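Chapter summary example.
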Amino acid sequence: MKRGAGKWAVKLVRCALALSLGVGSAFAGAVSGKAAAVSSAGQGLAELVFQYCGAGERVAGVTAEWCSMEQREIRLRPREDGAGDGAVALEVLVAADDRTRQAGYQWIDPGLAQTTATLFLFPRPIYGAFHMCNVDAPLWIAWYDEDGSPLDVTLMLPGADVPAAFCRDLYAPRTSGTYRYALEIGVGLARELELDRQRLMELSLVVEPWMAQGR
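The structure predicted for these 215 residues follows.
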């Protein structure tokens, strides 16, 4: 979940900065050439979202912000420097505004968080941290610069159940530089797709025109 971009993650940035940027894994809130991202139960993202949010009746374990996120497919491809091999396609939820970035995976059912992914879009390159408070499942997070090159990848762990403004469970890129996009992936989904830190650092995000909608 993102802010200023739940649980992945410069600790140069404190909670106040993350909040001001609008991030909560809360911006501080998949399918490998194999097949579209699915949960361990064999459900696609659209089916999962409908199960939790559809028919006009939200069930426990999701938020209005989570249910309002657009669904898209993104692609990760080997970096141009030749590192890595094999493209990956992922179904993701899209957090494109302050409301959805700040919410991220806060208060989301941990089983759902583990089997889905969210792409955070920002209107411009930023610095900032993501927090993991009120997130009950570990998440991988990858940060990308404007051209989709990976900046850093880390595993974010569940944080304390406290208001985001007081959260100390912060994650930011360890590599200096700004990022324009951030991708959070549940550990269960990442395991299915054989994605870990090394693999994610070998893959660039394919930047599509619709990704400019961050606001």
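To summarize the output: Confidence is low (pLDDT under 50) at residues 2-22, 29-41.
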